Input
Amino acid sequence: MNAPVLKVRDLKKSYGAIQAVGGVSFEVMPGEIFGVIGPNGSGKTTMFNSVLGQIRPDAGRIELNGEDITELSPVELNRRGVGRTFQTLQVFGKMSVRDNLIVAAQEHQGSLWSRMFAPGDSGLTAKADALIDQFRIRHVADKKAGELSYGQQKLVDIAMAFMSEPDLVLLDEPCAGVNPSLVGGISTLLKELNKTRASGKKPGSFVVIEHNMDFVMDLCHRIMVMVEGTVMAIGTPAEIRANKQVLDAYLGN
Output
């Protein structure tokens, strides 16, 4: 049996008397798309940012491919194969789409000294163009990212997370603010990336926080439901839909 790409054990984080995350445990397997849902204030973002090294948990252990990463910074995690997107766009508006993708991967191109003597694009143009084609944004590749529609910028933002060929990508509300007509396209794209990565040397494993329930149910292999900082349930979309406790507490019956 394959070992988990990501393993979180008894993760806890409090702010004064408020317990934001209270003993959360879960695993993400190679090639799995793992969804995280829950009402506002359920601890999803605190858990997410703890895994990503942006905040320090009070207790618990986080492993990436069997290695303890609990104390690592976001930069160190990125260099170990963790990509991410944020709720808000992180594109460079005055740079072209292609250059946004190139910049996103340059930190993985050896040492600062070696990058100083590398080509201006660090040899990344071909990789950027391959992702541009996969994300179906070739027609805007030379435009400044700030000139694109919000939905197009969202695609660029997601593509940037994949430029470093990460083992694990954490996507924070990829559909937030996106026109409903584009939501299905993002789902299809992530499924394609998951299959592409899973068939290569590095499995395509994603963790997705999203409020769009139809999107999550269609995309994810398993879903974790968080309520008041704890895990209420983990299961397949069908199991989550049939869970009366989840229906009563979150989805509505």
Remarks:
- Residues 91-165 form one domain.
- The chain has ten helices and ten strands.
- Strands lie at 6-15, 18-28, 33-37, 59-64, 67-68, 82-85, 168-172, 205-209, 222-227, 230-235.
- The longest helix spans residues 180-198.
